[in-house]
TrEMBL record:
Its main location: membrane. It is found in: Membrane. This is Tetraspanin family protein. One of its GO terms (cellular component) is membrane. Keywords: Membrane, Transmembrane, Transmembrane helix. It comes from Tetrahymena thermophila (strain SB210). The chain crosses the membrane at residues 21-39, 59-80, 87-111, 252-275. It is a multi-pass membrane protein. It holds the Pfam family Tetraspanin.
Length: 292
């Protein structure tokens, strides 16, 4: 009488188990990060109403995009690891490599920014090779000539700012005045230099984020590129505030970038190994790894 032969169930390889479980972990992380990004975007609705560059907007955008990519990477890894689907393993590799290099690039950027040779600006006049500070200071110099002048009187409603400007030659007009230099009629004329003009959005974001004014020096202790009626800025310049910010968080950012980037790169390499080990006659591509 015919007796059926029951072959023992094939065990999953270590690589398959690793990819599956790390994909589950990545899935949870991506959902949590996406939920947090959505929460921040909804909670700060005014974030998306600004046309200029904004630090919070950029961070939330990068968080949401990275979370979505990590989500699809996780799904591809789960299906590829559990169902032995070659297409999913391929997409898992591609997404893992893309995310890995993204994190590594961020790590190298912050590493370069926190390096003393790149980041230390010793001259107060910003005459060094670091153009980002030099052109931003020129923007402040141009703003000081135009804002609160006869060509562009400023509209001041904040009492502290009024008191600060009382004994100066700056002109206040609460009917036809402007609250920031970008609204002045002669703004394009004064900011005709493309390099200086390109720094305006960045300087505005620094004022909004760090409550500062001036880059290397302060022409006047008021907000030029954000609303002047926000009050009196802090004593430190935007350059110092920005440097302190990068010094505080830069090391954390590049350590996290290296760790996460390396972790995702290892995942991609293992997925590549799962597909490309030496062939054996009569054995499928996944069966070759059953006991790997």
């Amino acid at each position: 009488m015919y007796q059926p032969i029951f072959e023992p169930q094939q065990k999953k390889s270590c690589i398959q188990i690793y990819i599956s479980w790390t994909s589950y972990i990545n899935l949870l992380i991506s959902i949590a990060a996406l939920a947090f990004g959505a929460y921040e975007g909804i909670r700060k609705k005014d974030l998306w109403s600004k046309s200029s560059f904004d630090w919070n907007k950029a961070l939330v955008f990068l968080l949401v995009v990275g979370s979505i990519l990590l989500f699809f990477t996780s799904i591809a890894g789960i299906i590829g690891g559990r169902k032995k689907n070659k297409c999913c393993i391929f997409f898992f590799q591609i997404f893992s490599i893309a995310l890995s290099f993204s994190f590594l690039i961020v790590a190298f950027v912050f590493l370069g920014m926190t390096d003393s040779h790149v980041f230390d600006i010793k001259d107060t006049n910003c005459q060094s090779k670091n153009d980002i500070f030099k052109y931003s200071q020129e923007a402040y110099d141009q703003a000081n000539e135009l804002f609160c002048s006869e060509q562009c009187p400023c509209k001041v409603t904040d009492e502290d700012v009024k008191e600060y400007l009382e004994d100066t030659d700056y002109i206040i007009d609460n009917v036809n005045g402007k609250t920031k230099v970008q609204d002045c009629d002669d703004f394009k004329k004064y900011f005709s230099d493309s390099d200086v003009n390109d720094s305006v959005d960045w300087v505005e974001s620094l004022e909004d984020t760090f409550d500062c004014t001036g880059m290397c020096t302060k022409p006047l202790n008021i907000y030029f590129f954000s609303n002047i009626n926000r009050g009196i800025p802090d004593t430190e310049t935007c350059r110092v505030k920005f440097q302190n910010f990068v010094s505080s968080y830069g090391k954390v950012a590049y350590v996290v970038g290296f760790v996460v980037g390396s972790y995702l790169l290892v995942n991609a390499i293992l997925a590549f190994c799962l597909c490309c080990r030496d062939k054996r006659q009569g054995v499928s591509i996944y069966e070759r790894f059953a006991f790997y």
